[in-house]
Amino acid sequence: MNAFAQIAVTPDLSPLRRFVGDFAALLDETDDLGAILERGGTLLARLVERDDWLPDDYAQPHPERYQQYLLHCDSAERFSVVSFVWGPGQATPIHDHRVWGLVGVLRGAEKVQSFRHREHDGALVQHGATRDLLEAEVEPIDPREGDIHRVENAFADRTSISIHIYGGNIGAVERATYRASGEERPFISGYANTTLPNLWDLSRKA
Ligand code: FE2
Questions:
Q1: What domains lie within the chain, and their CATH numbers?
Q2: Three-state DSSP class for residue 124
Q3: Pick from 91, 83, 82: which is nearest to 64 by CA?
Q4: pTM given for the model
Q5: Closest CA to 164 of 25, 41, 31
C-alpha cells in the first residue's frame, strides 16, 4: 500500500459487503451448480452494474501482466471474490479453473475464447467463436461444460477490470495452464495483494 492510498478516500464498500453476504446465504441454501450459477449470476450482475465501490488499490494495472487481487474469501473457502485488472492488450495463458466461476465486467471489456481437447491427439482447438464480454455483462464458468479458456483485454489502449467469483479459494487451487499441443503445466495463481479491503468497518455508517 503506498502513501497515497493511506490518504485516499475509501469508497463505500457496502455493495461488495452485501454481495458476499448474499452469496454465502445462497451457498447455505443450495449446492446445486445450476442454481448457484444462475442465482449467483444475478447477484454478480447487480454488483457490476455500478462502478463506485472498488478501492483504487485493487484497480491498479501492472505494466507487464494482468493482476488478480483478492477482495474476499469465505471463511470455509467455499468461494472467493477477486478483481482482475487488465492493462492494455494483456491476456491470460490458456488455463482451466477446476471450480465453478462467474465473471462480470466492471470497467471496459474482455475477449474470451474457449478451448476443447481434440479427441484423437488431445491438442487444444478453439471451441466456438471469440466472445466479447462487455461492461456489466456476466458469464458463467461451468466445469461440467469444459472450463478451458483464454481471456484478454478487448482494448489495446486502456485498462479493463472484471470481478470474478469462484467456488473455492481460487489463488490456492491446483489447476493448469496449457500449451496449444494440449500439454498441461501445473498452475497455482496466488494473488497480487497482501492486504484486503476492510468490508467490516461499519463506523462510517453509524
Ligand atoms: Fe479464467
A1: 11-187 (2.60.120.10)
A2: strand
A3: 91
A4: 0.93
A5: 41
Using one digit for the tens of pLDDT, what is the confidence trace for 4-32? 545 567 899 999 999 999 999 999 999 99
Ligand 1 centroid vs 30 CA: distance in angstroms?
24
Measured distance CA(68)–CA(49) in Å, rounded: 20
Q: How many angstroms does the Cα of residue 184 sit away from the middle of ligand 1?
A: 15
CA–centroid distance, 51 to ligand 1, in Å, is 22
Distance from the alpha carbon of residue 34 to the mean position of ligand 1, in angstroms: 19
Using DSSP's 3-state secondary structure scheme, residue 101 falls into strand
132 CA to middle of ligand 1, Å? Answer: 14
Of 198, 199, 194, 200, nearest to 68 by C-alpha is 194
Kindly report, residue by residue over 36-59, the tens digit of the pLDDT. Answer: 999 999 999 999 999 999 999 999
- β-pair partners for 13: none
